[in-house]
UniProtKB/TrEMBL annotation:
<protein>
    <submittedName>
        <fullName>Hydrolase</fullName>
    </submittedName>
</protein>
<dbReference type="InterPro" id="IPR029058">
    <property type="entry name" value="AB_hydrolase_fold"/>
</dbReference>
<dbReference type="GO" id="GO:0052689">
    <property type="term" value="F:carboxylic ester hydrolase activity"/>
</dbReference>
<keyword id="KW-0378">Hydrolase</keyword>
<comment type="similarity">
    <text>Belongs to the AB hydrolase superfamily.</text>
</comment>
<dbReference type="GO" id="GO:0005739">
    <property type="term" value="C:mitochondrion"/>
</dbReference>
């Protein structure tokens, strides 16, 4: 299923190319829906989640649970985009990323904290 989504010619018409590690995706397909056991740990640095409004993977109703692990998280839902936001709406995706990275000091090494 993932292969059929990722390797559609439509996604290769943009000047920016995105690469997927299909071997890793195939080997870990079962685990992609799970979350590692990190109870009691948080990541408190700026974090951004970008989802398409038509995606079933990043849902607004999950924001509160996500914020338990990523208290500084911000969420962006791109209108008209599915799961592959960067391919469906590349300019919007890039704008969101550039704005986030411009506002964040991401120069330090970060770790999960207790």
């Amino acid at each position: 299923y993932i292969y059929s989504i990722v390797y559609q010619p439509f996604y290769f018409q943009y000047s920016i190319s995105w690469r997927f590690n299909m071997n890793v995706l195939r080997e870990n397909a079962i685990d992609t829906g799970s979350f590692p056991e990190i109870i009691g740990k948080t990541f408190d640095k700026p974090t951004m989640f970008i989802g398409g409004e038509r995606s079933h993977f990043l849902k607004k109703e999950d924001e509160a649970d996500t914020k338990r692990y990523f208290p500084s998280a911000e969420f962006h839902y791109v209108p008209g985009a599915g799961h592959l936001v960067h391919a469906d709406r590349p300019q919007e995706f890039i704008n969101i990323c550039v704005n986030f990275l411009s506002e964040s000091d991401n120069s330090e090494t970060v770790e999960l904290v207790d």
